[in-house]
Amino acid sequence: MVIKCWLTHLMLLLITWKESLNCSGLTVDPPENLTVVDPGHFGHLEISWSPPGSLINMTNCSTVYHLEYFNTYKNSWNAARMSIRSYSVQFDLMKDIKVRVFTILDGPCTNNKMIKSTNYTELIQKPPSTGIVDTEVQDFICLFHNMEYLECKWRRNPKTPANSKHNLYFWHKKLAQAVDCPNYIVSSGDRSGCNFTGTSLPKFTDINFCVNGSSPKGPLKPAFFSLQIQNHVKPAIANKLRVQTGPDMELRLQWECPAGSVPGHCLEWEVEHSQKGKTPPTKSVTRQTSLTLTSVHKSERNCFRVRSKLSKYCADKSFWSDWSQPICDQEKKEIAPEPQPSVVPVYICIAAAIIAMLVLSLCVGAALKVKKSRQEKRPNALLATLFPRNVTVAAGEA
Ligand SMILES: *[C@@H]1O[C@H](CO)[C@@H](O)[C@H](O)[C@H]1NC(C)=O
Ligand SMILES: *[C@@H]1O[C@H](CO)[C@@H](O)[C@H](O)[C@H]1NC(C)=O
Ligand SMILES: *[C@@H]1O[C@H](CO)[C@@H](O)[C@H](O)[C@H]1NC(C)=O
Ligand SMILES: *[C@@H]1O[C@H](CO)[C@@H](O)[C@H](O)[C@H]1NC(C)=O
Ligand SMILES: *[C@@H]1O[C@H](CO)[C@@H](O)[C@H](O)[C@H]1NC(C)=O
Ligand SMILES: *[C@@H]1O[C@H](CO)[C@@H](O)[C@H](O)[C@H]1NC(C)=O
């Protein structure tokens, strides 16, 4: 009886062993209990799983996991291998979350051959359906102005109910939890953006944003965004644009990098050259802050303007700066796009000129009067009669 029972056990063991043995050898089950947890970081999710139950009594086996997840930003599958049983990945919460995980066995138990589970454990999670449909904000854009402060803006959805109020929250790895916008941009009574001036945001790390809101009809549909600020730089305008006439048909154009935090070697320039009557303008790109043009027809008026962006050596992408003030080769007086002198000194100059003219005419008048009266007065007395009159006239003018 005992022997029979023992034999059945052996048979069963053999069957299961045979089942788990392919023509090539051992097989392994995929992991179990795959879960994705959202800790409220707007897409930075924690994936975790357990080893397959059939592995629990396997000794001398090293287990590795092969994780695949659908990268919604790049629209492709990404993969990672690890021995740990949890992993954090950035997802776009407005799209489906798709995760797959395989088990891989290695070590003495498999004769040091890598064996991957034929199947995987999969998890597909639909985006949460909170908020009134079609009320999420549109055209969300962030600009890192001259690498000094970040400004994010959005457009309200036309279907947003009246009297709605938007909120922006952000999170990055250095923050324990999401933080409200430090300084909202308000236009025509609505919150239309956030100014992060004075807030230090880390570069080369994902910054996650959530723009949600409330309305008299209920919560608005949240929108989620993730970006790295070094890829959103908009440099300041170039200044001190100068054009010099060279020999023959040559023109030399020079300008200066904008002051601020953007390293000069990171900038790449676009120069637009237009000639009166000629269309369209020609454009050239350079990484220097000067450009020499040959075969320029100087009979025509040549006008230039420049703009810059970060080169591919410094950032994955960048925004163009605004164009500089245009400068033309035949109006050398107006070449420097310096700020206009303020109006106040001009008024002071005019007032001073008027006073000077009045003083001069009074002096001439007084001198004539003195000559006419032919009185012999000492110069001190003459000054004493002039001075109080001047002061009263000047005060009256001012
Ligand atoms: C999977 O989860 C269930 C319930 O949470 C638990 O009973 C089971 O032990 C887990 N499996 C493993 C392999 O950890
Ligand atoms: C693992 O081994 C323990 C005792 O060694 C046994 O009680 C248990 O049933 C085994 N589990 C599996 C899944 O084989
Ligand atoms: C596991 O490997 C060690 C040496 O690497 C060996 O001493 C031990 O007997 C092995 N155990 C089993 C259950 O195979
Ligand atoms: C693989 O796993 C999926 C679910 O994880 C299941 O639907 C499918 O039937 C499995 N395929 C095989 C061949 O076991
Ligand atoms: C954001 O802050 C910066 C720095 O204080 C300021 O120059 C800029 O005008 C602000 N932007 C808006 C839209 O208020
Ligand atoms: C917006 O999101 C923040 C952060 O997740 C949350 O605390 C807040 O309650 C949300 N507001 C609305 C109106 O849903």
From TrEMBL:
Ligase as UniProt keyword: no
Topological category with respect to the lipid bilayer: Single-pass type I membrane protein
This protein's UniProt keywords: Glycoprotein, Membrane, Receptor, Signal, Transmembrane, Transmembrane helix
Transmembrane segments: 344-368
Main location: membrane
InterPro entries in the record: FN3_dom (IPR003961), FN3_sf (IPR036116), Ig-like_fold (IPR013783), TypeI_recpt_CBD (IPR015321)
Domain Fibronectin type-III per the UniProt entry, residue ranges: 237-332
Signal peptide: 1-22
Cellular component, GO annotation: external side of plasma membrane
Pfam families referenced in this protein's UniProt entry, alphabetically: IL6Ra-bind (PF09240)
GO molecular function, one term: cytokine receptor activity
Location relative to the cell: Membrane
PANTHER family in UniProt: CYTOKINE RECEPTOR, INTERLEUKIN 13 RECEPTOR SUBUNIT ALPHA 2
Protein name as annotated: Interleukin-13 receptor subunit alpha-2-like
Organism: Acanthochromis polyacanthus (spiny chromis)
Lineage: Eukaryota, Metazoa, Chordata, Craniata, Vertebrata
